[in-house]
Amino acid sequence: MSSDLKKSTLSNLHSSDLYFCKNCNQGWKDNKWMECCKGCVGHRAMGWTIDDMKCVYGTAMDSLIGRGKDCSYYFPAVNRPLTRGCRRLSFEPNRFQWNKDILQPFVRYELDWRMQQAELLGIFKSFPSKSTWDTLDPEVQRRVVYKYPVLRY
User: Fold this and answer.
1) Distance (Å, rounded) from C-alpha 153 to C-alpha 146?
2) pTM to 2 decimals?
């Protein structure tokens, strides 16, 4: 997969407007909701706070911006439930492995979100770092397993 979201073929395939833009991200930083964004309105209706938005989506968008990429970030559903799975995991250098069906549990989510996550996952696989890890949605982060077994005594 291409490491450049802005110039990739994949980004040309996205057809929906179900993404957060830089204005949403800036709004959260200013402690405001983007009332014209159906994702912001839908997430708020599901109990999300601005701090939740900054943590889940803002972190990913800031990481893309820091890498000089387009920060448009697709969300999996307009009315995404807030769950424990929406909390980010910290970067772990030994976390590099997953099977080809990693996104299978997310079939109920929007196709554009799944396509973007697949591309971001490929980028993380090629360039494992905190920056590429932070671009992944927390639910996807939870599906990535440790490369080395944890020894138990």
Assistant:
1) 18
2) 0.84
